[in-house]
Design brief:
Layout: E1 7-9, E2 20-22, H1 47-57, E3 74-78, E4 81-82, E5 89-94, E6 112-114, E7 138-142, E8 145-150, E9 164-166, E10 168-173, E11 176-177, E12 184-185, H2 204-211, E13 225-229, E14 236-237, E15 248-251, E16 273-276, H3 287-298, E17 301-306, E18 311-314, H4 334-337, E19 349-351, E20 358-359, E21 365-366, E22 371-372
Parallel strand pairs: 3-18, 4-7, 5-9, 13-17
Antiparallel strand pairs: 1-2, 5-6, 7-8, 8-10, 11-22, 12-21, 14-15, 15-20, 16-17, 16-19
Helix pairs in contact: 2-3
Length: 379
């Protein structure tokens, strides 16, 4: 495991029990598709045309055109918390506002989720979140189980709360190697492409750990990164005979689900894996930023959801290192406003060949984990 020491953060805890614990981000067992070195993987035959299609959608925009808001911006709002066995739990219930829940894609209603004291939901300072208008991801790791809830709300008085309202709770086994269909083909998760979220983030602690390695070539994160595009820049197909006014939706591996793509047929599909070109000039970027860039060259980025903010980093609420620390300082505009550095845009990437497009049916078929490994993560 990464050599990061754990620390306890409680603040004014509203729930009796153990506090949030901070340590390195959760990672799957070695052998996960997200930890495969893709630096030499085959490029898709239509890579150049897909990139050109995406760039053409926003012709006349800035040099970062192709990504949402015209640049590779970073979102730092997602929290990842650790809970020990003493943490209180609450059952998952259907979304209180929408009266809906994504089944059978997600874990059954009633599944218990740990809520460590002092924790918080994405974009909130506690467990209350406006899940009618925000993503409100709630992510907790307990032992080898990763709990990820989407559109979650517990309430500010956690001790009095009886449940976690959400549209989805997806649990993942971190000591398992999932099949190519992950949790199931045509199955969503807390992320629209069916991916896990936390193992595809990057945080301040792992950046610092990477920088401590003596060889620059080894200063990467050892896993793919989550990225996002607007829905109108992701591939969809012309109307099918039964699709009405909606375009048919598609995805590719390693994705297992398409959210709401409605872009041109030749655009980049949901679930795609992209690789930063090997000849990208990192001049001007700090050592910390180069860790992220090197990771995008060696492990790639995977298209996880629809939206405007391209990259997602873990908030530093529960990490030892902070994004403002001088040795690892990275901000939301790192890759388009660094003086003396080339702005990172979609033209600097290649789309990898991960298989044919899959027509989305929204008929989830859950799969079982076929193997498990009890191995340490990247060293």
């Amino acid at each position: 495991m990464h050599p990061i020491h754990r620390r306890i953060l409680c603040g004014f805890a509203l729930v009796a029990g153990s506090c949030v614990q901070a340590e390195a981000p959760p990672r799957f067992a070695w052998g996960s598709v997200f930890q495969q070195d893709i630096s030499s993987a085959a490029v898709h035959p239509q890579s150049a045309s897909m990139i050109a299609t995406n760039m053409g959608i926003c012709s006349g925009d800035s040099s970062g055109c192709g990504f949402g808001v015209g640049r590779m911006q970073i979102d730092f709002s997602i929290e990842v918390m650790r809970a020990d066995g003493a943490a209180p739990t609450r059952p998952i219930a259907q979304h209180a506002v929408y009266q809906d829940y994504y089944a059978p894609d997600c874990d059954p209603i009633g599944t218990a989720m740990p809520l460590p004291a002092g924790g918080r939901i994405e974009g909130s300072t506690n467990y209350a979140c406006d899940n009618e208008n925000n993503d409100c991801h709630l992510i907790v790791v307990q032992g080898n189980t990763l709990y990820e809830a989407y559109s979650a709300n517990v309430g500010p008085d956690v001790a009095a709360a009886t449940q976690v309202d959400a549209l989805c709770l997806a649990t993942w086994k971190l000591d398992a190697v999932y099949p190519g269909t992950l949790r199931g083909d045509h199955c969503t998760s807390a992320d629209a492409a069916g991916f896990p979220i936390a193992p595809l983030l990057f945080n301040a602690d792992e950046i610092r750990a990477a920088l401590a390695r003596p060889s620059v070539a080894d200063q990467h994160l050892g896993h793919a990164l989550r990225f996002i595009l607007p829905n109108d820049r992701m591939a969809s197909l012309p109307d099918g005979p039964d699709s009405g006014t909606l375009r048919d939706r598609v995805y590719v591996r390693p994705g297992t689900h398409a959210g709401g793509p409605d872009g041109p047929t030749g655009a980049i599909p949901y679930g795609s894996r992209l690789r930063l070109r090997a000849d990208f000039d990192m001049t001007g970027y700090s050592p910390a930023a180069r860790v992220v860039l090197r990771t995008m060259q060696k492990y790639g980025i995977v298209l996880a959801d629809g939206g405007n903010i391209a990259l997602t980093a873990q908030a530093d609420t529960f990490t030892t290192a902070k994004w403002s620390d001088s040795d690892i300082q990275i901000d939301s505009r790192e890759f388009d406003l660094t003086p003396g550095a080339i702005d990172v845009n979609l033209n600097h990437f290649e789309v990898l060949d991960t298989g044919p497009q899959i027509l989305e049916t929204y008929e989830c078929v859950r799969t079982s984990v076929v193997s498990a490994l009890f191995l340490d993560g990247f060293e």
